Amino acid sequence: MKQTxxxxxxxxxxxxxxxxxxxxxxxxxxxxxxxxDWGCDDFPNKSCDVLFLNTPPLVQINPEDFVAKxxxxxxxxxxxxxxxxxxxxxxxxxxxxxxxxxxxxxxRWLVAVETLLGQKFSGPLTVIRPGGLIGGDRHPAKSLSQxxxxxxxxxxxxxxxxxxxxxxxxxxAQAESALPVINAVTPFHPVKKEYYGExxxxxxxxxxxxxxxxxxxxxxxxxxxxxxxxxxxRPRLD
Length: 238
Hints:
The protein has helices spanning 14-23, 63-68, 105-120, 140-147, 162-174, 192-202, 225-228; strands at residues 4-8, 27-31, 50-53, 77-81, 92-94, 125-130, 132-134, 151-152, 159-161, 181-184, 210-211, 218-220. It is α/β, with parallel strands linked by helices. The protein has a six-stranded parallel β-sheet with strand order 2-1-3-4-6-10, with helices on both faces. Strands 5-12 form a two-stranded parallel ribbon. Helix 1 packs across helix 5 and helix 4 crosses helix 6. The longest helix has 16 residues, at 105-120. The mean pLDDT is 95.
């Protein structure tokens, strides 16, 4: 099937997605923060079958204004990258059926945009809520080792490698019908003191300062992901 993708946000994730599409011979175009400003620029006047929206939470922009700027069109799929932060501090097992309970400004902004996009583009919309992102030189253990900020060692990790997330984005776009929400988290949830500790030790990095404080711990899973993405490239987050 011939497709054209529009990628709003050619950054750490969007650029890898564009490379993946190009390798498949899929036509794509994209924007970077330096050439498209949501606050003052017009939306790109280019057509696409799949519109991929990948920006950090733009809390300085009203969610209604953010969504209003996106033109209506004959989209096969619109994919919005959100975050598992929308679940807030809820503990235990989290799935797509768990209600969002955002506790930060950025998470509240994401929930508002998700809702408004659903009202405007209900048919083709898929919201993907990734866990913590790793890949390249990006890893929470690295920043914790460098900063020496205390970390609750008994909490479970909810992460995903960029390689898997790119594959999930592609799979979501090819699904016969749009899945409204997908939690994109690798089904591998060791506690942080084990996984982060092993990760930093293997790289000769400074040990992380773990605390034994019992904070609410959640394990984010998915009821729908296995239908479109049964295998994982990085099942143990290596």
